[in-house]
Structures are given as C-alpha cells and as structure tokens.
C-alpha cells in the first residue's frame, strides 16, 4: 500500500510521505508510552508514595506533550499530502493519460480511468485524512503497552500477547461481515434504481410490444424483491456479530484478570502491580477494536489505490530518442505488416501497400477484415508485430508523436464533439486559425447549413458529445476539423449507416476538395466512394487479396465483382426502403 501511495504521489512527494509515516509511527508509540506512565503513577499512589507519583506524573506529562507534537505534525503532513492528492493527482493523471498510446483507450479502460479519477482520488485523500491514523495507532499503541506490560511481568505480557490478536480478529470478523451486508444493501439499492431508470427508458418498447404496467416488468420486480431481502437481512446478520465483537473484549479481560488473580494468590505478583497493569490493559481494547473496524475500510481503499497506481504504471509506446525527420510527407507505406490485438490471434497478415501523396485510396472488405485496424496502425494506436508502417517516408516508430500526428487528419465514425460552441469544435482542427479559415472549412464540409438552423448560430453549444447534432452532422463537423487542419494525409472512416442525401452530397463534395490537396485513405462503404478511388485495397481475413482500380478489379477479380454487386444491392435496398417510407 505504501508503495502504491508513493507511485500515486509521484517522486516529488516521496520524502514528504516518508516524513508523514515517521511522525505517524512516532505518535502511535508515544501515545502508548504516555498511557504506560499510568501504571507507575497508580502504583505509587496506591502505596502512598506521593513524591514518586508526582515524578511519574511529570514523566507522563512530558510523554503527552511529545505525543501532541507528533500528532500535530502527522496530522498536518497528512492533510498536506491529501491536498497534494486533490490538487495534483488529476493533473498528473491527465499528463500520464496524454502519454498513453491511442490503442489504450478502450471503453473498459476509460471506465476504469473515470472511476480512478473520482473514487480513487477520494479514497487516497481519505487514507491520509481518516483511515491510516486509527489503524496504525490502533496497532502500535497497544503493541507499545503490551511491551511495557511484558517488561513488568512477562506472564501478564504473554496473556496480553494472546488476547490482543483475539480482540482484533473478532472485531475484524464482525466489521467485515457488517461491511459486506451494507455493501449488499447498497448494491441492491443501486440495481433497483438502475432498473427503475431502465423501466422508464424502455417505455416506448414495452408499450409498443404490449408490455404495459399491468403485465409488470420482471427485472424491476426481481430487483425490488432482492432489495427487500437485503434490507431484511441487515438486522439478523449485524446484531449477532456486534455482540461477538463486544463479547471478545469481556472474555479477554476476564481471562486476564483471572491470570493476574491466580498470580497474586500464588504470591508471585504484587496486587498493586496487578491493578496498575490492568489499568493499562483496559486501554488496549478500544484502539484495537477501532483498528479492526477501520482495517476493512483501509482494505477497500487499498483496492482503489492499487487501481490508481496501476494506471500510473501503464506505459506509453516507446518514443525515439532522436526522432527522424520526414522524407516524403503525405506518403503511407505498409511493408509486410503483421498485427494482432492479442498474442496468437493475428488480425493483419503480410499486408503491403503504398499510398502516394495526393491520391485517393479506398480500403474495402467484409466486416472484421481489418480495415479499421489499418487506420489505427497508421495513427500508431499500437505497434506492429512484424514488418513496418511508414508515414511520410519514416517508420512511425522513428517519429515523435507530434510529427506523426502533424501528418494526419482523422475523420472517424465515432466523432467526439466537446460541449462547446460549434465554432470552438471546428477550431480544434487548428486552434490558431482565423475566423475566415474556420468559415471556409465549415463551408466546404457543409457545416454552414447546420449553423443556419441552430438558435445561436456559430455560438450554439453543441451539448455533451455533440448531442444537439445528428450523426451525419457530427461527421460533417469532424470533416470541417480535418479540412481546417490541412494535414498532408486524411484518414476517413466512412459512415456505415446510410446518409441522407444532404449529408451524402456534402461528404462527396468535401472528399473531392480534400483529394485535391491531401492524400486520402478511406475505409469505404459507399459505392460512389469506391468508384472514385485511384486505388482500391481489397481485404479479406486480414490479407490484401487484390489491389487495383474499380474497373480493373471488376474485370479480373470474380470475388471483387461479387463483393461489388452485393454492396450495390445493399445500397439500392437502403435507398428503396427510404423512398418507400417517404
Ligand atoms: N480493440 C480490439 N481488441 C481486440 N480485437 C479487436 C479490436 N478491434 C478489432 N478487433 C478485431 O480485429 C478484427 C478486425 O477488426 P477491424 O475493426 O479492423 O475490422 P473492419 O474491417 O474495420 O470491420 P468493420 O467494417 O465491421 O468496422 C475483428 O475480428 C475484430 O473483432
């Protein structure tokens, strides 16, 4: 856990973390020492030695003072570390994420990142502010007391050494169970809430298929029943376990008193010493129970810590020490490329092709044949397993990230728009572009049409993820970004869904414009795009089975002819379906 905390805080704060831990340990031990003075004070008082009691009391005051200083130091250092977490971890996480390869950003990883950025950082601050101190003092303070008791009378020391872990484990057992019960109640509550939301969202489907409220909605009813059962089990599971925790202290204490009384009766222990030592033993149980109760929380926090530390430990793809300059801007080459997302499951095999500057290449093939993977390798989402991907005349592994990205303008299907104005979303393509350049890019991509219908025109916020725009409109904004960026290579993942005529027209018009000034590599689905390409890469099962122009392939490749006719039929069917609806 300490190692994870050090990773999360970063090397700059490693010294502060060590200092905090040192003060924490000092505080816990000094607290035990201060309490331990109680024994000689009591012994002196019970034997009528007022001077001795005063001297011991002075010693106790000194220990209390030192414990206070240590407490203050560890609390202040703990809070400043918690503050470091709150103020810098998000920033460091942002910097770290920016260094990760694009292939890292799967939805599962993004989910983990989002959880770590919120719950994870909150948990880390809680560790410093609330969890670590009671657990460390709850273990070290009683341990110090046990050492003092053992030094005074080893037999009582032995008895304490036996029952202290017993109290700890009994409390830990009961708090773990209670924690689990509470988690089950929370989980059942969350599931029931999710089912209610699902029930509300599914209303159109449920009603369309005659599943009205009379018929009931089984998943929701099951979730409510599970929630009722979870709540019902709280009392029956919690109460007996609380009892066990409390009883363990009583049993342990009675055992200790019995041992002490036997020793006194046997004449081997002084009764005054026994009373004094029992006073110390009485101070052991509280911190132990507290430590046991908090240890569950600390364990939970540890899971979050581990996830957050694992995130920081994720490595980016190796960057060249001396980046190479580009030799042929705008050119793409694949040379015997082999690649798989998982070892032993190749997705691309022996893929070689070349795309010359200012030409248009279409990648076609069945679903899953590896078209998008080719685009991802050009953007260096991942490194290849074999062969070489060259952009601008250089292997992408020899280029630094900025140079590589400077060559590329991606227009992907899942366009992400920021919750900002339409203009700001296009300007992402080139932040220093003039207003005229933004307008020109927008005109070419057909965004001006969208502007006309938006209430605040260019200044209309497009909503989270571009929610105010349709899928086709979002892609037009993405194309405008690419036009504005004016990179030598445009990578376009054409929408698979049928576009309405307006979107279709604009995409085609922009493609023509882009082709005149950039290298265009398109994952093509529309027959018109395929026909317009200077070169078609025909993919099947991760291999390029043929390369050529549409006419050439149609004339010589029966498989291509079949593919083409299927695609054409599908397009025709889609158009007809639309006309029929109209
Ligand atoms: N992130 C990933 N992890 C593991 N396997 C993946 C991943 N992305 C794609 N694949 C697999 O790699 C193969 C090629 O996928 P790719 O997306 O490149 O195909 P595609 O030709 O673009 O398909 P489509 O036309 O349906 O988009 C598929 O079998 C797919 O399941």
Can you write the helix and strand succession as a string? HHHHHHHHHHEEEHEEHEHHHHEHEHEEHH
Number of helices: 20
Mean pLDDT: 83
- The CATH first-level class of the largest domain comes to Alpha Beta
Q: Tell me the domain tally.
A: 3
Query: CATH homologous superfamily of the largest domain?
Result: P-loop containing nucleotide triphosphate hydrolases
Strand content: 5-15%
- Report how far apart the termini are: 64 Å
Helix fraction bin = 55-70%
What small molecules does this complex bind?
adenosine-5'-triphosphate
GO molecular function: ABC-type transporter activity; ATP binding; ATP hydrolysis activity; ATPase-coupled lipid transmembrane transporter activity
Subcellular location: Cell membrane
Domain ABC transmembrane type-1: 19-300
Protein name: ABC transporter component
List the helices and strands and how they pair.
Blueprint: H1 2-9, H2 14-36, H3 38-46, H4 50-98, H5 107-152, H6 154-201, H7 203-208, H8 218-265, H9 271-282, H10 285-313, E1 332-342, E2 345-355, E3 360-365, H11 371-378, E4 386-391, E5 394-395, H12 401-407, E6 408-411, H13 422-427, H14 435-445, H15 447-453, H16 471-485, E7 489-493, H17 501-517, E8 519-523, H18 527-532, E9 535-540, E10 543-548, H19 550-556, H20 558-581
Parallel strand pairs: 3-8, 3-9, 6-7, 7-8
Antiparallel strand pairs: 1-2, 1-4, 4-5, 9-10
Bound molecules: adenosine-5'-triphosphate.
Residues 106, 341, 347, 365, 367-373 line the site of adenosine-5'-triphosphate (ATP).
InterPro entries: AAA+_ATPase, ABC1_TM_dom, ABC1_TM_sf, ABC_transporter-like_ATP-bd, ABC_transporter-like_CS, P-loop_NTPase, Type_1_exporter
Enzyme class: hydrolase
Transmembrane segments: 21-47, 53-72, 127-148, 242-265, 271-293
